[in-house]
Prior knowledge:
disordered N terminus
Amino acid sequence: MISIKTALAVVGVVAVASVACGGDSEPNAAAPQDWSIQSGSQMPDTTFGVSVTPNGDVVLTAATEGSLAGENQGQRDVYLARFSPTGELRWSWQDGGPKNDSPLGVSVAPDGSIYLGGFTEGDFASPNQGSADVWLARFDADGNEQWRRQFGGPAWDRGFDVAAFDGGAYITGYSAGVLDPDTDLGGFDGFAAKFDADGNRQWIRHIGTDATDWGQGSALAPDGGLYFTGYTEGDLGGTNAGDKDLFVVRLRPDGSLAWATQLGTSALDWTQGVGLGPDGGVLLAGSTEGTFAADHAGERDMIVVSLDADGNEQWRWQGGTPGADSAFEIRQAGGHIVLTGSVVGDFAGEGSSRGERDAVLVWLDVDGNLIEIQQFGTGAVDDATGLDAAADGWVVWSGHTFGSFQGANAGEADLMLGLQAARK
Length: 424
């Protein structure tokens, strides 16, 4: 039976656990319960990245045009904050230059180190090489910056996601230039780069074809390698079905290609969310304008694909409203799969629409069957973009709202952050 909920419980911050105030040395004594919060400045604040720490804290990164944790330095600054499992702010940090500095991915390593990355139009870590460069930074558990690296070519380069491991992190994205002459394929390519814990780059490689290829999300594979997804207009892991197809590749720890899979319809299909799936496989979340797994519901539908560790498709799912719907991120949480997204219309049943655009959490079982839809928001635009899952099955989500979700809107887009207890 499908259980449909049209709104998250508005509960504020509920103290349910005693936790250490810093670091990741002590596990939490009790599982957290549901909460959600809203915060922001008088200027736009948007987030796409959230990550759970080893002790159950929550790390959020955002781009702010205001002053969330210090005076804004010009256009977009990078914001990083750490919260307790009950939603209490432990510390926050903000930095930037006179141009746009945007974080798009954050990931916490097993030792508690925080890695975040994105793109900059300025000199965020070193002199800019072109219109936009990629950057990656490492922080300790208490928010002290350890190092910051910037790289790029003369054209547009954009870091999109970060996947940390024991001893470093990967950053993925796309480039209009040449980041590695040995693997450059021409035009727009996806890229993946590996850094150690001291900020030394181990390798970088292009992923793509001689057509346009857009690299986006990533997740750590069981062998320490990388799952990496995006879209291609060429033949990357098969023959292009028409327009844009989604792709996923698995890279070995040394950067060599293990396999590539390409899927699509005659319309536009793409993915940006990636999560580790059952038995070491991979889960993909994205959008389609075609009939990918079910009848097309409207302008754009949400899609999910499950592949095994060798790149073989296990199942696919599609759902949406008559409007433009997007899936952003995906995780396995215990015996469930959850994805974040946004919808335009009644997705969770008649009358479930809250406003112009709503945030959603969609719950599937491990075989791809729909279990529950949570549709929530305000009368304005609301998006649920970031997602992560704890080892014991609870999930944390992040997003932004132009309305008053948990109090009065501070100005334009505010940050949203919430936690959902483990599903039984």
